[in-house]
Amino acid sequence: MRPFKYARATSEAEAVQLVSATPTAKFLAGGTNLLDLMKEDVERPTQIVDLTRLSHLAQIRPTLNGISIGALATNAQVANHPLVRQNYPLLSRAILAGASAQIRNMATVGGNLMQRTRCPYFYDTAMPCNKREPGSGCAAFHGLNRMHAIFGYSDKCIATYPGDMANALYALDATVKIRGANGQERTIPIRDFHRLPGDTPEQDNNLQHGELIVAVELAKNDFAKHSYYLKVRDRASYAFALVAVAAALALEGDRIKQARVVLGGVAHKPWRSTEAEDALVGKEATEANFRAAAEAAMKEAKPLAHNAYKVELGKRAIVLALQRAMDETI
Amino acid sequence: MRCELITIKVNGEERTLAVAPNRTLLNLLREDLNLTGTKQGCDDGDCGACTVLVDGRPVLACIKLAAQCDGCEVTTIEGLAREGRLDRVQEAFWHEGGMQCGFCTPGMIMSSYALLQRNPHPTEAEIRQAISNNLCRCTGYTKIVAAVKRAATFAEFTQR
């Protein structure tokens, strides 16, 4: 790792101020992705601001209308928290589908949202990559793109967002609470947190430099009874998704009142399929209707040279995830 | 680069050390404290050879800054044996031959030790899940899993 200056923040205000003051400064929490990228020389911060002593940001607490999860709560703490398991089992399941026991003990909620793509060309500093080095080109576009996007990409970048937790947060309409450089707090609906690559793939999300995630908030919802997180990957554990599906249904009688279908591993951000959701609402929870929703979800998919398999895989995964959501009884 | 002064308890012994910010917990253990039982494998968070317990939980020492460990309690493979007696997990790995070249073994044992503390009677699926971030390039998984199962049948841990 290159040398850098290290500071241990003693307050949110100090953390925000330290990072805002230096364009090449970075916040550090669990470090499971940032340190990895620093070792690979992809990230080269000159100043690290360590957040881990801001213990109030690790709290998980009930709110009047749901739950507030501090940005520094570890993935393991969130996944195993009784309130999360009981009221948001989809979130718990998604987190446990990601990474490994060691990494879930280290990685935080805020860091999980901030993790960067695992596109191998992004990691390989000998190759062009517009995300790593804007204007250098996209080696993946004409390279090996089996793992890459089928939705929402541009000619500048075809990388996918690699996380699992965020797919569940999109399905649950989470809100991200941010503290800005001016000391003000603001909130971003999770659907507006990550970006599509467009012409600026170097920007993964809509945070300004120096803005700090302080919490993720979830409102009460009707999805706890019928939800499922299905992750399809090359190995049974500790691998990134080829396709992941966060599926949630709320029923009224035998009709679907509300539906959520969010796909992971297919775009630069968690890909919420309103097409699939619209196809489900008002219908019965039958396999035929699930199939119709899966077809609707994949209608606009534009596979690349090596990832056409994701279209059929995605359809099957959506059907299976919806079926399992119906089988789940919490 | 200014060094950070940190106090860290390693295998029960409190140490105060000056560490450069860009050094990891793994560097500190192996190079500053000469605790070379913890292995450096991929050095990138993938292989699990560097697994140690920080405040009782298994983590990857290669992607944790030493400076972040100020005030933490760290247990390494050297901290498991007591008065010349192996811990039950070590004992079980020895009995079952749960190792070939041995490079992954300290990390495997630390992950397994943490699993059994949390879940004294794990299923095979739970064992495999718990060691899924510990790669054995000799592919000796069958005997490793058998070793963790055997460890679970041994008498309870002496509390440390």
Automatic annotation (TrEMBL), chain A:
<dbReference type="InterPro" id="IPR016166">
    <property type="entry name" value="FAD-bd_PCMH"/>
</dbReference>
<dbReference type="GO" id="GO:0071949">
    <property type="term" value="F:FAD binding"/>
</dbReference>
<keyword id="KW-0285">Flavoprotein</keyword>
<protein>
    <submittedName>
        <fullName>Aerobic-type carbon monoxide dehydrogenase, middle subunit CoxM/CutM-like protein</fullName>
        <ecNumber>1.17.1.4</ecNumber>
    </submittedName>
</protein>
<dbReference type="InterPro" id="IPR002346">
    <property type="entry name" value="Mopterin_DH_FAD-bd"/>
</dbReference>
<dbReference type="InterPro" id="IPR005107">
    <property type="entry name" value="CO_DH_flav_C"/>
</dbReference>
<dbReference type="InterPro" id="IPR036318">
    <property type="entry name" value="FAD-bd_PCMH-like_sf"/>
</dbReference>
<dbReference type="InterPro" id="IPR036683">
    <property type="entry name" value="CO_DH_flav_C_dom_sf"/>
</dbReference>
<keyword id="KW-0274">FAD</keyword>
<dbReference type="InterPro" id="IPR016167">
    <property type="entry name" value="FAD-bd_PCMH_sub1"/>
</dbReference>
<dbReference type="InterPro" id="IPR051312">
    <property type="entry name" value="Diverse_Substr_Oxidored"/>
</dbReference>
<dbReference type="Pfam" id="PF03450">
    <property type="entry name" value="CO_deh_flav_C"/>
</dbReference>
<feature type="domain" description="FAD-binding PCMH-type">
    <location>
        <begin position="1"/>
        <end position="223"/>
    </location>
</feature>
<dbReference type="GO" id="GO:0004854">
    <property type="term" value="F:xanthine dehydrogenase activity"/>
</dbReference>
<dbReference type="InterPro" id="IPR016169">
    <property type="entry name" value="FAD-bd_PCMH_sub2"/>
</dbReference>
<dbReference type="Pfam" id="PF00941">
    <property type="entry name" value="FAD_binding_5"/>
</dbReference>
<keyword id="KW-0560">Oxidoreductase</keyword>
TrEMBL record, chain B:
<dbReference type="InterPro" id="IPR036010">
    <property type="entry name" value="2Fe-2S_ferredoxin-like_sf"/>
</dbReference>
<keyword id="KW-0411">Iron-sulfur</keyword>
<dbReference type="InterPro" id="IPR051452">
    <property type="entry name" value="Diverse_Oxidoreductases"/>
</dbReference>
<keyword id="KW-0560">Oxidoreductase</keyword>
<dbReference type="InterPro" id="IPR012675">
    <property type="entry name" value="Beta-grasp_dom_sf"/>
</dbReference>
<dbReference type="InterPro" id="IPR002888">
    <property type="entry name" value="2Fe-2S-bd"/>
</dbReference>
<dbReference type="InterPro" id="IPR001041">
    <property type="entry name" value="2Fe-2S_ferredoxin-type"/>
</dbReference>
<dbReference type="GO" id="GO:0016491">
    <property type="term" value="F:oxidoreductase activity"/>
</dbReference>
<dbReference type="InterPro" id="IPR006058">
    <property type="entry name" value="2Fe2S_fd_BS"/>
</dbReference>
<protein>
    <submittedName>
        <fullName>Aerobic-type carbon monoxide dehydrogenase, small subunit CoxS/CutS-like protein</fullName>
        <ecNumber>1.2.99.2</ecNumber>
    </submittedName>
</protein>
<dbReference type="Pfam" id="PF00111">
    <property type="entry name" value="Fer2"/>
</dbReference>
<keyword id="KW-0479">Metal-binding</keyword>
<keyword id="KW-0408">Iron</keyword>
<dbReference type="Pfam" id="PF01799">
    <property type="entry name" value="Fer2_2"/>
</dbReference>
<dbReference type="InterPro" id="IPR036884">
    <property type="entry name" value="2Fe-2S-bd_dom_sf"/>
</dbReference>
<keyword id="KW-0001">2Fe-2S</keyword>
<dbReference type="GO" id="GO:0051537">
    <property type="term" value="F:2 iron, 2 sulfur cluster binding"/>
</dbReference>
<dbReference type="GO" id="GO:0046872">
    <property type="term" value="F:metal ion binding"/>
</dbReference>
<feature type="domain" description="2Fe-2S ferredoxin-type">
    <location>
        <begin position="4"/>
        <end position="80"/>
    </location>
</feature>
